[in-house]
Design brief:
The chain has about 725 residues and is mainly alpha-helical. It is about 70% helix and about 0% strand. It is built from 35 helices and no strands. Helix 21 packs antiparallel against helix 22 and helix 28 runs antiparallel to helix 29.
Length: about 725
């Protein structure tokens, strides 16, 4: 046993000895080769004495690139020239030998050679040489404290190649520190950049340009994002005399880093800019500025077109919500840069994002015309989506969705599911315009079937489709089915979708499960940021009112109004970046909150509080249909029916489709004239045409028929029956 182990150890020792012997032989052969190829270099490295040098740049045409097969002929010619014509010191010799090893691919050997250069000792000489480049026509050194421009160029290249070697070995922080030395040396010696006087200076400029471009990349690899941002800004704001393409590459890389790095950088210090110049205040604004500059350079034909510039700019502006700026940039692009059809589709998305659905739809109609591209599936789907948002254009949306289905392959289930979903949405909207109940029910049934097909094709994994199914069933008062779909939608979204929480709470309120509805809202509030809690808090207040907790409702409204007050005084960047659509939504929500409070105080007969709420809403929007309706309700509660009718008429002048004002007008007319006045029926029928599920309209229509006597008793009974059923299943707020 022991002999065997000893034999194994002995074999290992023999193997190690042979390996060491082989390595020694390899080193000896390499040493003899280098001594044969570079006798002057080896003499210099061993003794430290000076030898002559002249044509250093003939060793290589490009620095920073590892080559496995260096041009030995050029190296021998350069080494011969070094012996004959100029001086080469110890550091220069190491720089040349390190470059040779780097070009062969021996990164570790090259780094070992470069680390033998005393950067601190040669720094004063390099600075002096660089500072004289713009004032001396000769490139020979005149004393021991200076060196030629060629020598300085060689040493700076050595520092750069050392950084590249460290990068190749994964030592990114050290590589960045080494690369930064080059920038510091040039910046302190030539604040206005390197002069353009000779070939040696061209080599210096080439090394400098590569160092400027490499440094931020090294900081990113070293996981130092702030240092990377500082390096990018230094590259763009300092005077390095970079060429246009290099500057464009740095600008693009910097914009990408700002957009996707995940960190937030401090705003740049641009005190040198004019007071009227734009100064970005956050990552997003700075990235957009850089990308807009690049797009401008493309327009001026300073750089070649790069499609990724528009991709990154589209993302950045979409996040900021300022899609109108993207539309303007695309409209300024010269013809031929992007395809005309792609331009139309992208512009329609921009206008839609900015809230101008009409302009977006007109562009799509032009794109989908017979003379252009009538079978463009993405455009057909987008057009169907836009048309499906308005009952007036819903029929056109149905046609677009059907055309999209006709142009899709049978195997593209996801896209077919999207087309079926949009078809269902348009059918649902089109049902609102049906004059006959049979037509309305038929279209609603078709809409449900289309949405169910979409859910089946997408394997019930698309939360938008599931949410829409929940909404359609809720509006048809199929509350159990609606609640099941609402729960599934929330599960698919991971609880991150605000509208899913609100819909579930409203469905529960329609089932008169107010405690459960309040629990759902509270859970949603806990998972939602302060700025996004407005709709939730308003729904919570209405649930509390329906549950009889009026004091709690007042406190909830106060909490909501406090958020609005803080928002109005906030100067945070995210508030500035919010699109106009979101800001308008917040203003509308604040307006309706004051009106909700006013209606609650009307029920308490607290007239001064009502007047205060109306004055607050007037400061937001004086001429709104909902505000005039509250004014009319206040006058009606006081018994001033003529003034109330005038207010309701003003509301309908502003918004002819304002259903509450139609119903209230009918109620007031019953007090001012005979109860069977045909105008009353006209108001109520118009209201039901817009909102078929409004139990108040059905109830007042029943009163109208009852006032006509026994001849209309059957109609009155049917109206009261419909009103009772709808009231039992009415949510605290409309489902949609």
């Amino acid at each position: 046993m022991g002999a065997t182990g000893f034999g194994g150890d002995l074999g290992g020792y023999v193997l190690i000895a042979n390996t060491m012997n082989n390595e020694h032989q390899i080193k000896q052969r390499r040493k003899r080769l280098v001594q044969h190829k570079f006798p002057s270099l080896m003499k210099c490295l061993c003794s430290g004495e000076l030898v002559r040098m002249n044509e250093i740049d003939s060793l290589t045409k490009s620095n920073g690139e590892v080559r496995q097969n260096p041009d030995i002929g050029n190296i021998e010619e350069a080494e011969s020239s070094l012996r004959e014509s100029a001086s080469l010191n110890y550091e220069g010799a190491r720089a040349l030998l390190g470059r040779y090893e780097y070009q062969k691919g021996n990164v570790e050997a090259a780094l070992h050679v470069f680390e033998g250069i005393d950067i601190g000792a040669v720094t004063p000489k390099i600075k002096l040489s660089l500072s004289r480049t713009g004032h001396r026509s000769s490139f020979q050194s005149d004393d021991n404290q200076s060196m030629s421009v060629q020598g300085a160029s060689l040493l700076l290249e050595a520092i750069f190649l050392k950084a590249k070697s460290l990068q190749a070995l994964g030592r990114f922080n050290e590589a960045a520190q080494s690369c930064k030395i080059i920038l510091d040396l040039v910046a302190s010696s030539c604040p206005d950049g390197l002069p353009e006087t000779s070939g040696a200076d061209c080599k210096l400029q080439e090394t400098l340009s590569k160092a400027v471009e490499l440094l931020p990349q090294l900081w990113i690899l070293a996981d130092c994002p702030q240092e990377a941002i500082m390096a990018y800004r230094r590259a763009l704001l300092s005077y390095w005399k970079l060429d246009t393409e290099t500057i464009a590459n740095i600008q693009k890389e910097f914009a990408v880093h700002l957009l996707y790095s995940g960190g937030e950088a401090a705003p740049p210090d641009l005190r040198s800019q004019l007071d009227t110049s734009f100064t970005p205040t956050n990552n997003l604004e700075e990235a957009i500025l850089l990308l807009m500059i690049l797009l401008r350079k493309v327009h001026l034909k300073m750089i070649k077109w790069d499609p990724s510039i528009l991709d990154h700019l589209s993302f950045a502006i979409s996040v900021s919500g300022q899609t109108q700026a993207l539309a303007s940039a695309m409209e300024e692009m010269l013809p031929g840069i992007i395809d005309r059809k792609e331009r139309y589709l992208a512009l329609s998305l921009c206008y839609y994002g900015d809230g101008d659905s009409s302009a977006a739809l007109n562009l799509l109609r032009h794109l989908l015309s017979a003379r252009s591209d009538p079978n463009n599936v993405p455009a057909l789907l987008m057009a169907s989506k836009l048309c499906g948002e308005n009952p007036e254009t819903a029929e056109e949306g149905i046609r677009y969705a059907q055309r999209a289905l006709g142009n899709l392959d049978d195997g593209c289930y996801e896209m077919i599911g999207v087309a079926e979903y949009l078809l269902g949405v348009s059918l649902s909207q089109h049902a609102k315009l049906a004059l006959a109940d049979s037509d309305r029910v038929s279209r609603q049934t078709e809409a449900i079937h289309a949405l169910e097909r979409a859910a089946q094709l997408t394997k019930s994994r698309d939360p938008s489709i599931i949410y829409r199914l929940s909404l359609e069933h809720a509006e048809q008062r199929k509350l159990d089915v609606a609640l099941r779909y609402a729960k599934l939608s929330l599960k698919l979204e991971g609880g991150s979708d605000l509208k899913g929480w609100i819909l579930m709470a409203r469905i529960l309120s329609a089932q008169k499960r107010f405690p459960d509805a309040e629990v759902v809202v509270n859970a949603a509030i806990d998972q939602t940021g302060k700025w996004s809690q407005g709709e939730l808090l308003r729904t919570k207040a209405k649930i509390e009112i329906a549950h009889g907790h009026l004091k709690n409702a007042v406190e909830t409204y106060a909490q909501l109004l406090a958020i609005f007050q803080v928002q109005s005084k906030s100067v945070k960047p995210e508030r500035k970046l919010m699109g106009s659509g979101i800001q308008n939504h917040d203003r509308h929500l604040e307006l309706e909150t004051w009106h909700d409070l006013a209606r609650m105080y009307i029920s308490f007969s607290k007239w001064p509080d009502v007047e205060l709420c109306l004055s607050k809403s007037a400061s937001i929007e004086r001429h709104s249909a909902s505000r005039w309706h509250v004014v009319g309700s206040l006058n009606e509660a006081k018994g001033y029916y003529k003034e109330a009718l005038a207010a309701y008429t003003a509301a309908l002048d502003i918004d002819p489709t304002h259903v509450p004002s139609m119903i209230s007008s009918a109620v007031v007319l019953r007090h001012l004239s005979r109860p069977s006045n045909p105008v009353i029926r006209s108001f109520l029928m118009d209201a039901l045409q817009l909102d078929r599920m409004n139990h108040t309209a059905w109830y007042n229509l029943g009163l109208f028929h009852r006032a006509k006597g026994t001849a209309a008793a059957q109609e009155a009974a049917e109206c009261f029956q419909a009103a009772a059923f709808l009231e039992e299943t009415a949510p605290v707020e409309p489902f949609r």
